[in-house]
Amino acid sequence: MDTTLRRRILQQNPWLVDPARFDAEVRRRLPGRFVPRRVDLAGFSDRSRAKLIVGPRQSGKSTLVWSLLAGRPAGQVLYLDGEEPTVQAWSGSAVQFISDVGSGLQGVRTVFIDEAQRLPEAGIFVKGIIDARRDLDVFVTGSSAFHLASRTGESLAGRAVRRVLLPLSVDELADRTTSPNPLVWEEEAARICARQQVYGAYPAVWASADPEPLLFDLVEALVVRDVSDRFRIQRPDVFRRLLQLAAGQIGQMVNLAEWAALLGIAASTVREHLALLEEAWILKLLPAFAGGRRREITSAPRVHYYDLGIRNALLGAFSQDLGVRPDRGALAEGWVFGELAKNVPPSWLVYYWRAKGGAEMDFIVCRGDRLVAVEVKAGGRPTTSRSVRSFIEAYRPACVVLAVGADVAPAEEAVDGTRVRTVPLHGVAAAVREETAREA
């Protein structure tokens, strides 16, 4: 280990010199109001596999890891910042890294690699550490893009436990255990739901009394500069316009040819840019459900943003009066998508459904032949629409959840043998979790 690297490692890990500083350094990295995240930690005790936490930048991945490391012996934790050039160079050889740790940092038992997508060969590096079998507990954060950074095609399959961390969910912010009174929880959850439809749920944005400047900064730093620089986008102006175009059409089907004509670029370029934005956890191209029991649209995906604050910042649309916003329906549907993305178990997939005759369901949550359908209504009275009945007739799902933005009491009825549940908008994630657990 050369002198420059040694000095930089000790600067980033001052507790290796003075163990008494570790607790203070961990507290410094945790926000004043830390919201416990609902992450499945099954497998995190297995030291033979790396713990990968992926998702958009600033969604709280590093904070989550620091919260997990709190209380560990100070001299056993080694932190590596993937954005540091010295760390990037050190990561070029897992063999050299293991040798350096063994000779100069003998007490280290836990390695935390932050922003791993910045490393030139992150997958190879982490794989090498795990394969060395030195009993190191390895935590890794970053965009899932770093899986593709390895030009050798090496994989971490079987060597990692992977978890996705998205911005905050309603149930994380309105914890039922701290609001045991159901009426209090309902009021708080409804308030959170309304605010998230305007400002989203990135932790720093949520904690701010003035969220709009933070969201504009996020768009610049996270969406435009980080993604476009990372993937060397040659036309950042067109990339931004694509983001705005997608923001204006959330919940609608993507027509690549039409978007390409509007942007003045090739359809293949639109497809490539959208794939990069999916890789960076900014937006999702939701595929169509095709069960083959109706004449269905199967080729065109629908576009959704994982966080509506980013979407609204791209459009400069921060009106808090949801009742009069022309995009009220799109916001409600987009918010439900975000909640499903944060809450649906990994073994279940999310689609939308649309028959060529016009019947459609906003979301289909499925695993094999087990189906839970979701229809979103921004307001009005809950009704079992023609689309709902058409889907029930074709597929006999276990349950249909009607998520209604208006103030409604939860209710349930049977329609042709299918349970149809009506819930307020803020209760949709809990309802879908219950149904997927019931069908597990």
Structure characteristics:
single chain; 440 residues; alpha/beta; six-stranded mixed sheet; five-stranded parallel sheet; 17 helices; 17% strand
Describe this structure in words.
The structure is a single chain. Helices cover 41% and strands 17% of the residues. The longest helix is centred in the middle third of the chain and has 20 residues. The radius of gyration is 23 Å and the shape is globular.
**Main β-sheet description:** 6 strands, mixed
- Taken together, the total number of domains comes to 2
How does the helix and strand content classify structurally? alpha/beta
* SSE string, helices as H and strands as E: HHEHEHHEHEEHHHHHHHEEHHEEEHEEEH
**Spatial strand arrangement across the major sheet:** 8-9-10-11-13-12
Low-pLDDT stretches are none
User: What is the gyration radius calculated from CA atoms?
Assistant: 23 Å
As a percent range, the share of strand residues is 15-25%
Mean pLDDT across every amino acid position: 91
What is the 3D shape?
Answer: globular
- Report how far apart the termini are: 51 Å
Helix content: 40-55%
Number of strands: 13
Total number of helical segments?
A: 17
Summarize the structure in short.
The protein has 440 residues and is α/β, with parallel strands linked by helices.
